[in-house]
Specification:
113 residues; alpha/beta; Transcription Regulator spoIIAA; 5-stranded mixed beta sheet; 4 helices; 33% strand
Length: 113
Amino acid sequence: MDLSLSTRTEGDRTVVVVGGEIDVYTAPKLREQLIDLVSSGQYHLVVDMEGVEFLDSTGLGVLVGGLKRVRAHEGSLRLVCTQERILKIFRITGLTKVFPIHATVEEAVAATD
């Protein structure tokens, strides 16, 4: 399965909607998208992962890299995910302590650091 990406702006946040599988083959596409957004001055990102069916360690690495990039600019990267199988990966790796994870895009956009 491929990876689908789309972005939109909500207030001062940029929402990246991700669908499909984030794995060793598709993760570079997501990495490029995050780099492009940060390079263009978008430092408050919300990654909507509701459409993600699979996430591997490469995908986790891309998200951590994106977080480091936005934090270098005093920014934030929030995740939207309610799927138990994806949330379990974040819990097992301890990344629930690193990423704010929200149930809805609206909740993530409204959240303040």
